[in-house]
Write a structure and sequence with these properties.
The chain has 386 residues and is α/β, with parallel strands linked by helices. It folds into two domains: 217 residues, TIM Barrel (Alpha-Beta Barrel), CATH 3.20.20; 163 residues, Aldolase class I (TIM Barrel, Alpha-Beta Barrel), CATH 3.20.20. It is 34% helix and 24% strand. The strands form five sheets. It has an eight-stranded parallel β-barrel, surrounded by seven helices. Helix 2 runs parallel beside helix 10 and helix 7 runs parallel beside helix 8.
């Protein structure tokens, strides 16, 4: 049994919560971090596993691993710069379920030897890659899970788009962990839609006033989409309220048609809403509906780089359907859905509890007039959805 791998491979997006006191890129994060208390709190907050920095450069030690093991039942990852097979024996004795192996610092023979010794001990290995060559090496070595780090360890810069392309490159039968640079729900969602099974989050948790609450926030679902945006000030209000997705309707028949996909803050993903035909737009995602006559069809798909990543369950064009939630609930049992159609502050919570969608989507109910948002209703909708 692979306790660590299996914990990350469950349904939905898993979280690997990290305990670290300092970071070479950010300096002191939480000097007084108590690994036992944090590991227990992360377990209660829904983490799938916990990563413990055991390297002194991060303010960690193997004693932190032992303390976390005594306090939590979750699988534990010992994170450090390991190159000696004998180190793994000690980590296993202290309660690790898995160890991190950095391909940047290991050649294939070293990595294979460490993976072999780990397997003898019953340890999983999270084999970390930073570029396409290292991803290919990890695949050839049989690594599972594979960690893909968004941080360049030479410059400490975060390159999230490059990371997402590497995540998408990894074989789907391997468990993939997106590491570093996760500070908002939208960051985790982007990794999830690219194919990641889990995210590793450290600095965002250590900087938070309540690390466990921050973890819960990052992995909470549904995501919240505000659609029909046409003005920068409305995008800003949606972001400030906590929306994760910003939708821009580019279909000619819509009374809230946007002239373009507007810039969105880093905490949101942009969604271009199209009807009838797919075209290249400067958005992270595309919501595509079929065309029926002079209007959109009922249901659509959410696409990332042209690949379907979720189904959009909507109401018929300018119509109601009393079976809408029942229909959506049946669809949600078979994959990710975005629930749209008639949602607003008054009913979104009931809809979420009934359907349990991956995301909710509201547009016209949040307006003062077509294309102009009522800021109070936007805030009330996001708050109700949360």
């Amino acid at each position: 049994m692979s306790r660590f791998r299996d914990a990350l491979a469950g349904p939905g997006l898993a979280a690997l919560a990290e305990v670290k006191r300092r970071s070479p890129s950010a300096g002191e994060l939480r000097p007084d971090a108590d690994p036992a208390r944090l590991a227990a709190a992360f377990e209660r907050a829904g983490a799938a596993a916990v990563s413990i920095l055991v390297d002194e450069r991060f303010g960690g030690s193997v004693e932190d691993l032992a303390a976390a093991r005594a306090a939590a039942r979750l699988p534990l990852l010992a994170k450090g710069f390991f190159s000696d097979v004998e180190e793994l024996t000690e980590l296993h004795r202290l309660g690790a379920d898995a160890v991190l192996l950095l391909l940047r610092d290991l050649d294939d023979s070293q990595a294979a030897a460490l993976m072999g010794r780990a397997a003898e001990l019953g340890l999983d290995t999270l084999v970390e890659a930073h570029d396409a060559e290292e991803v290919d090496r990890a695949v050839r070595l049989g690594a599972d899970p594979i960690g893909i780090n968004a941080r360049d360890l030479s410059t400490f810069a975060i390159d999230r788009p490059a990371q997402l392309e590497l995540v998408a490159r990894a074989p789907r039968e391997r468990v993939v962990v997106a590491e570093s640079g996760i500070f908002a729900r939208a960051h985790g969602a982007a990794a999830e839609l690219a194919g990641a099974d889990a995210i590793l989050v450290g600095s965002a948790l250590m900087k938070a006033a309540d690390p466990a609450q921050k973890l819960s926030e990052l992995i909470s679902r549904p995501l919240v989409k505000v659609c029909g945006l046409t003005r920068e000030e409305d995008v800003a209000v949606a972001a400030e309220a906590g929306a994760d997705l910003a939708g821009f309707v580019l279909a000619r028949e819509s009374p809230r048609r946007a002239t373009e996909v507007l810039p969105v803050p880093d905490t949101m993903l942009s969604v271009a809403v199209l009807v009838g035909e797919l075209r290249d737009e400067p958005a992270e995602l595309v919501q595509l509906y079929p065309r029926e006559g002079d209007h959109r069809g009922r249901d659509g798909v959410l696409l990332r780089n042209g690949e379907e990543v979720a189904r959009v369950v909507d109401l018929p064009w300018q119509q109601q359907d009393s079976t809408h939630l029942d229909r959506a609930r049946a669809r949600s049992e078979h994959g990710r859905i975005v629930l749209a159609g008639g949602l607003g502050p008054e009913n979104v919570r009931q809809a979420i509890e009934s359907v349990r969608p991956w995301a909710v989507d509201a547009s016209s109910s949040l307006e003062r007039e077509p294309g102009v948002k009522d800021h109070a209703r936007v805030r009330a909708y996001v708050e109700a959805a949360r």
